[in-house]
Predict the 3D structure of the following.
Amino acid sequence: MGKEILNKCYCGNTKKSSCKIEKNNLCSICEKQGIPVKSITVKHMVLDELTEQVGDNDYFLCMSEECDITYYNTESKNKFNKQQVKVPIWFKNDANPKYACYCSEVTEEEVINAVVKHGAINMKEVLEITGAMSNSQCQKKNPLGKCCHQIIQDAIDKGLIMK
């Protein structure tokens, strides 16, 4: 598979996050570096009763599989745990379901099955079989606030290894 296919975003989102990445932006619980996420995404991810607590500052998504924290802001000290978000975060240990595409609610298992059981070998075929990336609202529905292309590609790669 060519590099041009791996880097193509099928949902059309070409914008990069403007969040600042600094070495001191670590999760206060696990001390792991997070990934920047816009406040609009966090507002859509947290439970409705917590939306006002988010504010206008951008957040980080804690990337530790074991950590209970999802979003945190190092300036305001706000943090939200797994029980305070509307959807399971795909890489957290106990995520169920484990979505590869949040917008179309396609799970990692469905992507892997498209490869293993239905013979898909690339992104285009997986998207046709699963319907992933057909309802692009990434900024509001994906916990990272961006396209799920890489998450789906990782699931395809797992399926190809299993084949």
In short: The first helix runs from residue 3 to 7. Helices lie at 3-7, 39-45, 51-54, 108-116, 123-130, 138-141, 149-162. The chain has a mean pLDDT of 88.
